[in-house]
Here is the input.
Amino acid sequence: MILAFALTAAVLFGSGAYLLLQRDLVRVVVGIALISQSAAVTLIGSSLTRGQEPIAPDPGQPISDPVPQALVLTALVIGLATLALVLALVNRVVTALRTAEHEELAAQETEHEESLEADQQRDRDEAA
Amino acid sequence: MATALLVPWAGGALLIALDGRRRTVAWLSVGALAATLGALAVLTVRVVSAGPQQTVTGGWPAGIGIVLRADALGVTFALVSILVLLAASAHEAIAGPRARTFPGLVVLLAAGLTGLFLTADVFDFYVFFEISMTASYVLTTYGGRVRQLRAALVFAAVNLLGSFIFLLSVAGTYRITGALAMADVAERMPAVGPNAGMLVAVGFFIAFSVKLGLFPFHFWLPTVYSGSTPAVAAILSGAVANIGGYGLLRFGAGVFTDQLQAAAPALIVLGAASILYGGMLAVSRGDTAEMLAYSAIGQVGYVLVALGVGGPVGLAAAVLYSVVNALNKGLLFLASGLRGPVVAGAFVIGALSVAGVPPAVGFMGKLELFRTGITAGSPALVVLLLVGSALSLVYMFQTYQREFWRTDHPVSGVSALPLRALVAALALLVLAVGLWAEPLLVLSERAADALSGRSG
Here is the structure.
């Protein structure tokens, strides 16, 4: 069971890391989401214990550890919030620039800065 | 201790709902931060006079409830971070905030940071870490132009990866020790197999190095610092980056003591590489914000070297230098966005402090580092520190000359008087702490004691 969890986490992290390196911003976001899921799977897999439910157990019987479940719940909520935030950020970028590609972003920015530099040069020439 | 957490928490939740573009709301956020700073100052006095303070949340017995623990290390970092946040938000309150969420977010960031520095639980640390990081992702977009959006995107993508590596390490910690309270983890670490322990420790190291912008993990830092507005850059480098330094100290020296000792040579080499790389690139940069970003990469190298050397002297130096660096960067980033005679003076004080010239507080930091080098008995380390200081002197004054002596500067005119007064006050604080350094020295020594006491 632990092996299955480990393999799942590894595949999730690998795919996430691959997507994170893509040019398309939406893919980057999906990559982040996959890596967050991989962390959640690892949290569960790293503390699997066999036993009864921890609510009202028979005395003397082993109980399954409830702590990791609580941790995963918290981590999932945080993951959801950050995912929503990053998606909103990408949305802002898309509406502002009408592109969702990393390189086009960089190119547009350079263009913008060059145009600014030309303006500044003109100002300086006029002042001189 | 609960007040120090509740004040920014309640204040932030309230202020985020109000329209932050109004002056009153902006000043309310400054007031909330000042109240937090006051509560932390009271807490610091209590910690120094009566030893670490501890509360268990919700009145549960310890072990079920989550433990909050204020020791000298935590309160020192909390104090300096909130101070930088206060300066940055006062800067924006004077200038007039341009986004409705800014004042509320700064206060929420303060809540996250205070919690992070005061918690004694590994998973709680992750939760507060995410609270502060989420607030700072949104803060990076402040200004709303394309540059800031791009900076926020890079910042969020890289640091989320760092956060999840941290979470994976937390899972590993729970697996190998079966505990989440820092004291229990530290107690059970010696019984853990060396390979598993090392793996988890390296995970934590990578997560904090990404946050701090240490040499091989620094790639995101220049884009973000030069892309965001001066106030946000001051917040990121003066307050948010403290998470990395604190984390390295707390987890490295406090929890994973054996792993830290085993990895000490590697840490010193990485720190040295960071110092030289940051210094060299800072000299070659034309843009002030970019220069300060590379300078930040170099400065955290010193902290890592001091941590690698370790011992009471090394740890105290690491704490002291983190505090000094946060103050310096806060001052320099705020000053770099302004113009005028007083501002130039403030920038010079910041520059002298980075280079380690008395009477600025940077001198105390460098002095402690030299003591560390001498205690380690390594001439190479002392030479490295000297080279690093010389480099910082070069890049700082190169920038000073380019920015403040240039007559045809694109940003012309003198900034508003209150803004200049604020920067001057911050510069005076840097001078005052340098001249009357005993409180800071005592605090950092206590912090080092707290760390080695916990591990020993």
